[in-house]
Amino acid sequence: MYRDRHPPSPHECVKFLELSFALAPSKEDVDVFASLPSSRVLATHLPHHLLPERIGRVVYVCRDPKDALVSGWLFTRSAPPHTLEEAFELFCDGRCVCGPQWRHVLGYWEASRRWPDKVLFLRYEEMLLDPAGNVRRLAEFMGRPFSVDEEAAGTVDAVVELCSIDSLKKSTASASGAMTELGVRHGSFFRKGAAEGWRDHLTPEMAERLDAVVAQALQGSGLTFGAVVCKDSAS
Predict the structure, then answer these.
(1) At residue 73, does pLDDT exceed 60?
(2) Residue 17: what pLDDT?
(3) Less Cβ crowding at N or C end of the chain, within 10 Å?
(4) How far apart are the C-alpha atoms of 18 and 7, rounded to whole Å?
């Protein structure tokens, strides 16, 4: 937890797991994070079953597949250039980074139910509705619950404000910095920070089709995506 430190950009305190290994100077089995102080906070897009066994607690944030599709398309549409319709067809076929998005989410959902003390499963939409409550939930999960004094001092609200989309957009590092490894500006990661942005891009027919694909894939899992509710087979 970085409660007592305010880094100018989250990209300066959270390294990507797979990117760090891919850019390691040697292909040998080396610990590319040895220089980072413990405990380490890392980011990843890897499916749960591909995570190293020594990974500790995992916090997974998912979002509605329709928003995931639109967000990914807006972020990568120029490299290589492709239309939303093309991206939609690929997404529905499960041809995207790390495989079908819903299968990726399902892996962490099942892990969170099997090991609730090791995997915290969060929904982006719920986080937006109750940011303070989810900050408290995250702190509890990480073994660093807010003290009575911190609650009285308004620390929870301060953390919410610090991590808000507006604060991230206004930070100097986000406005001018970049991930040199990928050549991506920090500001590219902070767009609207809202839910249901897909409504501005997808037709009702596209949304209905994708919802049906996801519902079929998640049948019996108990996992919920917004309006898509997949009940347990036993219920």
Answers:
(1) yes
(2) 76
(3) C
(4) 22
- Chain centroid to CA 177: 21
Catalytic-labelled residue, pool 6, 45, 186, 201 = 45
| Residue 175 three-state SS | helix
Give the C-alpha separation, 163 to 122, whole Å. 16
The rounded distance, in Å, linking the Cα atoms of 221 and 223 is: 5
Q: Is 201 in the active site?
A: no
| Domains of the chain (ranges, CATH numbers) | 60-129+164-229 (3.40.50.300)
Which residues, in sequence order, are CB contacts of 42 under 8 Å at separation 6+?
14, 15, 16, 17, 33
DSSP 42: E
Q: Which two tokens stand for residue 171?
A: 């930070």
Closest CA to 60 of 19, 18, 104, 20: 104
Token reading at 175: 């406005």
Report which residue type is found at 101: Q
pTM of the predicted protein model: 0.80
DSSP assignment letter at 33: T
30: left (phi over 0), alpha (psi -120 to 50) or beta: beta
Which pLDDT band holds residue 163 (cuts at 50, 70, 90)? confident
Residue ranges of the alpha helices (H) in the chain? 17-22, 65-76, 84-92, 101-114, 124-129, 131-141, 148-152, 155-162, 165-170, 172-176, 204-217
